[in-house]
Amino acid sequence: MMTSVTYSTHLYKNKSFLFLIASQIVSAIGNWLDILAIMTLVAVKWNASPLAVSGVMLVFVGPMVLFGPISGVLSDRIERRFIMVLSDLVCLVLVLGVAFSTELWQVYVLLFLKSSFVALFIPAKNGKLKEIVEEDQIQTAMGISAMIDNGAKIIGPVLSGMVVATLGIQLAFYIDAFTFALSALLLLGVPKYDRKVVAKEIEQKKLMIFSNLLVEMKEGFTFLKGIPVILVSLIISTLLLLVLQIADTQFMVLLREIFKDPVTVAGYSMAASGGGMFIASAIFTKKQIHSTLNCMFFGAFGLGISLIAVAAMSHLSTTFLTIAYPMLFFLAGFSFGSAIIPLNILAQKITPVDKTGRVFGIINSMTTLGTLIGMVLGGILSEVFGVVMTFIVSGTSLVVVSLLTIIIKSLSKVGIEMSPKVSQQYKENRKHELLKAAESAFCQKGFEPTTMKDVVELSGMSRGGVYQYFSSTEEMLKSILAERDEQFEKKIHDFIKSNQPVWETIETILDAYNKESFHKISAVTYEYFVTGWRSEGMERIPYLLTRFNRARENYIKLLEKGVETGEFDPIQPLHTIATFLINVTDGILLQTHLAGNKEVDTEGQLEALKLYLRTVLQIN
């Protein structure tokens, strides 16, 4: 399923990345201190019902569904470091508010607000990671990020269990508030990303954020639809999280029915689960994943078996369960990491940086929606049938999901494997975007000074993503010229097929040349071919002649139609007239670029060319 890949040590020399993961470390540990403290407060100290406990988890993740796509768009349009720092500072205040809560409704409100700002933080963090890490290091960076999240699940619950058991619940909240402050401080070491603008319409989008939200979100959905491997994996992940949360939200309810002191066992079990996910993250950091669906099959199956075993052993002695439950949750954590991490790595590697926020906003929104539904079902099932039966239903459903994954893989032979066969339309769209960025760079700097780095910055894509389509700026320019040549040839053919008089067609073309004089790509074209006289550039001359002959043949075909219909009675060979037409228009355009339309009298020169053509063609 996996083969080794080179581990990049250069990532640890990236100071921006180090500051980002340092912030993530302290924030993630603080979050887990917070979660166990809240669950202990609600489920144990206040002895809330299973539905009330599910309600706590609902307000934890609900904002992801409500604000996930919107926050993704915002993270693509607003500086991401600012979003993350703001989120940390607001969360600091809200955590302190939870520490002083006396009613369940107060906890609900404060947690909902806190989760809303976390929903802003996550796509911004993923987008920032893409900004500061090179393409060939993305998998390693994502793996490290996942290891941090899962390592926090080891340290956080253990620390929280110790703090809650010995010093009280409130101190856990104070420590969490401190971690948010430290996280915001560390984020100041992550540089801002000064996005260069490709065109004026992008600037307008930045000024019209909210009016463009639906459009931007639609782009994210369109991107996902174009890559089946991500879309299918996302649907399965959503289903997996739905059935998993049926049991997961009732974990503390199960423990309080079995143990007199559920906090310590909960801390060990959560830490063991984090340990399993940490190991899964470490494996996927260093290995290449060839099939996301294979990973999801084994992950869902392992999760199902683990939860069924937790329920089946619940009647055994508490001494045995104190050891057995952490072991089972270690397996569950490893299985969950195996199922979820490959999707995140794949999406991060494939998604261009300018769409990262939108795509991950949608991914988080869909998976969180599944999580929400599972939480509600878990509370209802636990109230009606008991918590043990709820775990059995959840575990059995996960086994069914694993089997469904294999069925989907066997039925869907196209676009499902780890090396996704993206749709042709998607490839064409990305290629078109790159060529627009390259054309903008050429027009700003000229052909020779423009580098691939310039195009990478203007396109918003990663360097590796750009090189998937083009290997050099020369290849890009040739693609731009080929596209323009095809458009011109199509226009000539359409004119020939139409009933429009040929002379009117020629006038239309020349009038278009007058407008074309303001298009800088023509000057770039001249620059490219003029520098071809040098010995190292002589290979450009045959390419120039090929384009010239192609254009001349199209003009000859157009003139031949005029002769056939009796519209023209030329006094010179059509070959000569077509050659003269091309040379004169090229000269006029070049002079216009150098001296300006008014100085060259572009319009007058084109009218003079029309006068020559009327004379030489002897229009009837």
Automatic annotation (TrEMBL):
Chief place of localization? membrane
DNA-binding residue intervals:
451-470
Question: What are the alphabetically sorted keywords of the record?
Answer: Cell membrane, DNA-binding, Membrane, Transmembrane, Transmembrane helix, Transport
Protein's UniProt name: MFS transporter
**What sequence ranges are listed for the domain HTH tetR-type?**
428-488
In the bilayer, the protein is annotated as:
Multi-pass membrane protein
Compartment(s) = Cell membrane
Out of the domains of life, which is the source?
Answer: Bacteria
Q: Cross-referenced InterPro entries, in alphabetical order?
A: Homeodomain-like_sf (IPR009057), HTH_TetR (IPR001647), MFS (IPR011701), MFS_dom (IPR020846), MFS_trans_sf (IPR036259), Tet_transcr_reg_TetR-rel_C_sf (IPR036271), YfiR_C (IPR041612)
Q: Could you confirm whether the keyword DNA-binding appears in this record?
A: yes
Give TM segment ranges: 17-44, 50-70, 82-101, 171-190, 227-246, 266-284, 296-317, 323-347, 359-381, 387-408
Give start and end of each Major facilitator superfamily (MFS) profile domain: 16-413
